[in-house]
Write a structure and sequence with these properties.
With about 25 residues, the protein is mainly alpha-helical. The protein contains two helices and no strands.
């Protein structure tokens, strides 16, 4: 298991955040 992958999963992607904000 790559640590990088885990880090990406833990860190919330900005794009996803923006998408949620627009959806709200």
């Amino acid at each position: 298991v790559n640590s990088d992958e885990d880090k990406e999963d833990i860190n919330p992607p900005t794009e996803l955040y923006a998408y949620h904000a627009t959806s709200s």
